[in-house]
Specification:
- Helices cover 0% and strands 53% of the residues.
- It is built from no helices and eleven strands.
Length: 127
């Protein structure tokens, strides 16, 4: 199998820290250092939506295609749920446990709608 590559020049100023691809919508979501989120249509090579939701770096983004949502996780332990097509925030979850100031890792199971976050302990968030 041979892979082809394409560089996309972006006018938007987002220092990308994470990204995810939605097979259902055919979109790429990116999160950045500045707390910004952007959604691109790679086939049309255009930015479809952009928003600033987090106060600090976005460490992970996950498409939840079953609900047509985008989940973003900030390094400040805030979790935001977005309408994945309009990029409008529909819910904000804030982890107020005293484990640590920052998450060290996250994982999302789209089949079960379960988000795992970790610092000292692992926390389970159900959709």
């Amino acid at each position: 199998m041979l892979w082809e590559t394409t560089n996309v020049n972006r006018k938007e100023k987002i220092t990308i820290t994470t990204f995810d691809y939605s097979q259902k919508a055919g979109l790429i979501a990116v999160g950045g250092v500045e707390g910004k989120i952007a959604v691109f249509d790679p086939s049309a090579k255009i930015l479809t939506a952009q928003a600033k939701g987090h106060e600090s770096e976005v460490m992970d983004v996950y498409f939840f295609d079953k609900q047509m949502q985008l989940i973003t996780v900030g390094i400040d332990r805030s979790i935001m749920l977005w309408d994945s097509l309009k990029l409008e925030c529909v819910q904000v979850l804030k982890d107020s446990s005293a484990q640590s100031r920052f998450y060290s890792s996250t994982c999302f199971n789209s089949q079960r709608g379960v988000l795992l976050t970790a610092c000292i302990n692992i926390k389970v968030w159900n959709a």
